[in-house]
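Try this one yourself first.
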């Protein structure tokens, strides 16, 4: 049976192979999955041309997913190193890869990524328009932009970040409400440049139906980008950010009318006390569409440790409604991440996502924690390692400091509370 998109299938009561994969991974009833997909509260990014995809769902009632950003740049154009990051990300259980390449033969890299990658893949076509055409931003035509979108869709990209909400109205809010850090989204700044220099409306907003036609043809999920996300705590939850969010909510309804899956991208740098409100605003203004957040980073003063600042914000964001976390590495704001940075970012984001799933009461989430606690009570080190989010690091720490009594660790030794209380209360 054929269907135009995953959303259209759900609305017809058709269970696709991708939905079956999600049902196998998640503790959700088939009827609930179909209903939430039909409503737009769950998406399954799954381009028809991504043939080796193992589909995953994002949205209400599902486990929180994490994304890894990578790709080549002019200063760091090592294609093989980035492809190795793709492979390593999959080993580390990332749920998605975003190719943010901005230099060189981007199409070959993208196609190779799709070929080797079984997880969903995202891109930001505006970056590639700049890289591909080698023009000044203002000289790129509307057709150029849409040709790149079509190319990414043909290549098998499952979701695309499109900053369609950065309209002239939103830019006016930015001008009348000055910011400390202006526009920190690369895609947002490129479109701002194009719009301002040409004195024209955002082409993706003005020709949104054209964009929807392409997405429907290949079943690409739109990730409506936050071009005006705050780049500092001072700019969080300001008029420009909220104006763009209002527009994204309107565009969300147009996506659903066209049977196109959509999720919303969010901040950014946000003080801890504003994170929950930001999640509530998105869910309200964007009608319950899945929310994809970068961090949020909750303090601006920790370069080198922003995997931690974002994990703090990400855990609270996901516990309060965010569905998809974009990882942040220790290299954020400093350089292109290397493989070690990437691992630190992935583990930090996975910790945040899992902590949020426990808090949200996602069925089965706490079972993992309970199993680890049982292993700790039993002083079963091999079981602890097998359950650890990062077994390699746990084993290395254990091996680096050997206790006299191999049953305990060198923190407490003979004063091990677990061993002592177990003996008293259980006789062992």
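Now uncover the answer:
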């Amino acid at each position: 049976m054929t269907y135009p998109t995953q959303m259209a299938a759900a609305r017809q009561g058709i269970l696709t192979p991708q939905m079956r994969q999600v049902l196998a991974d998640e503790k959700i009833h088939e009827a609930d999955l179909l209903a939430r997909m039909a409503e737009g509260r769950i998406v399954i990014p799954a381009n028809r041309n991504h043939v080796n995809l193992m589909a995953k769902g994002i949205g209400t009632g599902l486990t929180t997913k994490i994304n890894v950003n990578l790709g080549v740049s002019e200063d760091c154009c090592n294609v093989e190193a980035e492809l190795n990051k793709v492979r390593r990300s999959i080993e580390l259980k990332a749920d998605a890869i975003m190719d943010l390449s901005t230099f060189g033969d981007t199409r070959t890299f993208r196609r190779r990524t799709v070929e080797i990658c079984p997880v969903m893949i995202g891109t930001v076509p505006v970056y590639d328009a700049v890289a591909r055409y080698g023009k000044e931003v203002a000289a790129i035509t509307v057709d150029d932009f849409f040709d790149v979108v079509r190319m990414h869709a043909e290549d098998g990209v499952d979701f695309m970040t499109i900053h369609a909400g950065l309209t002239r109205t939103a830019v006016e809010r930015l001008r009348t409400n000055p910011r400390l850090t202006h526009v920190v989204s690369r895609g947002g700044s490129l479109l701002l440049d194009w719009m301002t220099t040409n004195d024209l409306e955002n082409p993706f907003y003005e020709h949104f139906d054209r964009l929807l036609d392409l997405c429907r043809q290949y079943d690409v999920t739109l990730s409506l980008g936050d071009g005006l996300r705050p780049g500092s705590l001072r700019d969080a939850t300001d008029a420009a950010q909220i104006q763009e969010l209002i527009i994204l909510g309107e565009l969300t309804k147009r996506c659903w009318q066209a049977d196109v899956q959509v999720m919303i991208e969010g901040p950014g740098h946000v003080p801890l006390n504003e994170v929950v409100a930001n999640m509530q605003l998105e869910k309200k203004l964007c009608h319950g569409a899945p929310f994809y957040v970068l961090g949020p980073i909750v303090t601006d003063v920790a370069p080198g440790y922003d995997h931690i600042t974002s994990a703090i914000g990400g855990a609270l964001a996901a516990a309060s409604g965010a569905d998809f976390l974009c990882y942040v590495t220790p290299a954020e704001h400093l350089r292109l991440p290397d493989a070690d940075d990437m691992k630190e970012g992935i583990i930090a984001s996975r910790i945040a996502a899992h902590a949020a799933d426990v808090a949200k009461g996602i069925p089965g989430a706490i079972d993992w924690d309970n199993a680890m606690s049982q292993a700790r009570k039993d002083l079963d080190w091999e079981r602890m390692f097998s359950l650890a989010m990062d077994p390699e690091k746990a084993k290395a720490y254990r091996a680096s400091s050997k206790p006299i009594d191999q049953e305990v660790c060198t923190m407490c030794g003979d004063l091990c509370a677990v061993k002592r209380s177990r003996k008293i209360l259980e006789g062992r």
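Discussion: DSSP finds 19 helices and ten strands in the chain. The first strand starts at residue 42 and ends at 43.
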